[in-house]
Design a protein that fits this description.
Oligomer: single chain
Keywords: Membrane, Transmembrane, Transmembrane helix
Number of helices: 7
Protein name: DUF456 domain-containing protein
Helix content: over 70%
Radius of gyration: 24 Å
Number of domains: 2
Order of helices and strands: HHHHHHH
Structural class: mainly alpha
């Protein structure tokens, strides 16, 4: 246990044993771990990330299947998937979408250029390029989807 937890426990024990303590003890506020978990959920939603990743991978696969000989066409699938998420999302989820786009594009680039990544010793460079491009395309898709949603739902 940390020193802070020990001090908090001692303060709670002192407050309970003091004569000024009433018989009806009130609930203590949320713990530090609960507050940190609440902040983390506001910054990064695991559920939204999983949905964004599944849609980005699906978009990569579908667009890559229909246009197999066009280089980097899978990024169009990531854009379309995150655009759709932006259309239906009421909150901003740029962090989740950026990470999902980066993971999906990195996996796609490394799968496409597996031989170069392993034998050519350029795996880190390919992964970085895929992650950067995927994150950028995903954030742009989400932004434009949210922008269209705002334009469609705004009163004239």
């Amino acid at each position: 246990m940390s020193r802070t937890d020990d001090l908090l426990r001692e303060l709670e024990e002192d407050a309970e044993s003091s004569p000024s303590a009433t018989s009806s003890t009130s609930e203590a506020g949320p713990s530090r771990r609960e507050r940190l978990g609440g902040r983390l959920k506001r910054v990064f939603s695991l559920r939204y990330f999983v949905v964004a990743l599944a849609l980005a991978l699906g978009g990569l696969f579908l667009v890559g299947t229909f246009l197999p000989f066009v280089p980097a066409v899978g990024l169009l699938g990531v854009f379309l998937a995150t655009f759709g998420l932006g259309l239906v999302s009421a909150r901003r989820h740029y962090t989740e979408v950026a990470v999902a786009g980066a993971v999906a594009a990195t996996a796609s680039v490394l799968a496409d250029f597996f031989v170069f990544a392993v034998i050519g010793d350029s795996g880190a460079t390919l992964a970085a390029a895929g992650a950067g491009a995927g994150a950028l395309v995903a954030v742009l898709g989400h932004y434009f989807g949210r922008d269209l949603r705002a334009g469609l739902t705004e009163d004239l």
